[in-house]
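Course assignment 3, question 2. Fill in each field.
Student: A.L.
Task: Predict the tertiary structure for the chain below.
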Amino acid sequence: MKKEIYEQQKAFAGEKIPSMSRRKVGHDYQQRQIYMITMATEGRLPLLGKVVGKSDGQKGTPEEPRVELTELGKQVERNWHDIAVRYPQIDVLALQIMPDHFHGILFVKEHIEKPLGKVLLGFKQGCNKALSQALPLSLLPLRSLLRPLCPVCCCITATN
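Answer field:
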């Protein structure tokens, strides 16, 4: 997202809050819970896909509005679903990818060894590795400067 667009939209979105300030103080992110996670690309760059189709397109037709994922978006999708493979105590309930962010819901079914933040850190590292590999060699010096996914994590209490 360009700076001028960001400035225009900031009035609606509010000031950016560091992700760690959004965490609930004293909450045990290892316990049985359902978590809604939103992650956005750094600078809201549309790295994950692009919106195609028409807003009034009929469902099931080529004109149906949808997001076509980039290779990076497809890798994010694979990595997200791999969380349940790597951590059997976690179920992936949902994933919706947009061009510059995604929303996902994870269900921690039982106490996990690592806090959820550490699980998500591994997910982000896998996504960042995919981005680094996708960059042309001419951008090699920039690879270490990229931090494409910035997390926001909300907690929703699970029922038994």
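Instructor remarks: Residues 142-147, 151-160 have pLDDT under 50 and may be disordered. The helical segments are 3-13, 71-86, 116-134.
Grade: pending
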